[in-house]
Fold this protein.
Amino acid sequence: MTTTIKKLSAIILTATLLTAATACHNGPSTTIVTHDDNNYQKIEYAGRVVFNQDQTAIEDISTGGHLYYEHNGKKFKAQEGAMGRIYYSFNGDSEVNSLSAEQKALVAEAIKEIVKQRAKRTAN
């Protein structure tokens, strides 16, 4: 009886660890880098990133997901935070969840580029 309980405990522990490991995995990440003599752009995202209908803002990011955007020295990272809020960090500064007009414009620029790149990938 004790051996059966030990085996069952080991199976439950293994299943729990596997569930925890896969719960943190958000699927593949995507990185797109474009550059020429005058421009550098990097887009990286993982998890599920949902844009608003106008494609100008981020509505939701899945747990553990993120969006990173850099264009000619301007950069930000967005990730899901407490209570479903989205937290942004611009140019390495501290996290904020309320954006200035300039920050909103940069996020909208990033979304426009992501939509454009996704369209290119599905057309091929």
